[in-house]
Amino acid sequence: xxxxxxxxxxxxxxxxxxxxxxxxxxxxxxxxxxxxxxxxxxxxxxxxxxxxxxxxxxxxxxxxxxxxxxxxxxxxxxxxxxxxxxxxxxxxxxxxxxxxxxxxxxxxxxxxxxxxxxxxxxxxxxxxxxxxxxxxxxxxxxxxxxxxxxxxxxxxxxxxxxxxxxxxxxxxxxxxxxxxxxxxxxxxxxxxxxx
Amino acid sequence: xxxxxxxxxxxxxxxxxxxxxxxxxxxxxxxxxxxxxxxxxxxxxxxxxxxxxxxxxxxxxxxxxxxxxxxxxxxxxxxxxxxxxxxxxxxxxxxxxxxxxxxxxxxxxxxxxxxxxxx
Lengths: 195, 119
Hints:
The complex is a heterodimer.
Chain A: H1 6-15, H2 19-41, H3 44-60, H4 72-89, H5 92-105, H6 116-131, H7 134-145, H8 150-157, H9 161-185
Chain B: H1 4-9, H2 16-29, H3 37-47, H4 50-56, H5 58-83, E1 86-89, E2 92-95, H6 100-118
Helix pairs in contact in B: 4-5, 5-6
């Protein structure tokens, strides 16, 4: 088996029990994995736990990881599955309430350059994304935050590409509706010509 | 921090809705980084023997509890078959009724113990 990329070489070292190699993989992937988990769960502690569990699985199941392909998609798959499990276990409404409260509590003084309109937009969009079901939120997060293609998302989520496409379409339509509703509430001179 | 207008104007010719969603997601997690103690926890757990590592994970804990429960049920069945009274009835041995107090002690107490351990 020919290992052509750095991930494969590191995985091969992890297979031999090398923790330094696991550390290098962690440094390489920790931020995108953590942000993906955070975007799906909206909970920092859960995102930390998911990141930890994902890399422990790399270590535990290193012997079954394909060294000839990059580790990223496999890690995304584990992260998304763990995030799914978390969202199933946690009472969603409780966290949505907590999150909304946190956003109210964070005032503009933390980001003085942020205008009220920007904050409102972000809040509206984030609430709309939070309101999506986990499987739609996962697709939106992977596509727009991580820039994964439909095929890559299909691999990560374990569903056919057509299903990913339809989930993305549904999520976009749902968000479009929310944005249009918000546009109608704005006064004309502030309204942004969204199409 | 990128403003919404900057983000959208850069993608005006393409997909404005997508640009807006991307901007919102990026703004939400832009300053999010995992704390250093996460790696320390991973390292500490990875250095544990495989058996303890599996046991410490939630799934491993459940699997261990399920195995213990099965083992407990097996042992209880053995004990029950041993202590259960039998009576001679028409040339064969038939199981009799257990004393209600004793049977509740033998079956329910360990049962509650397993339940408490499992959850």
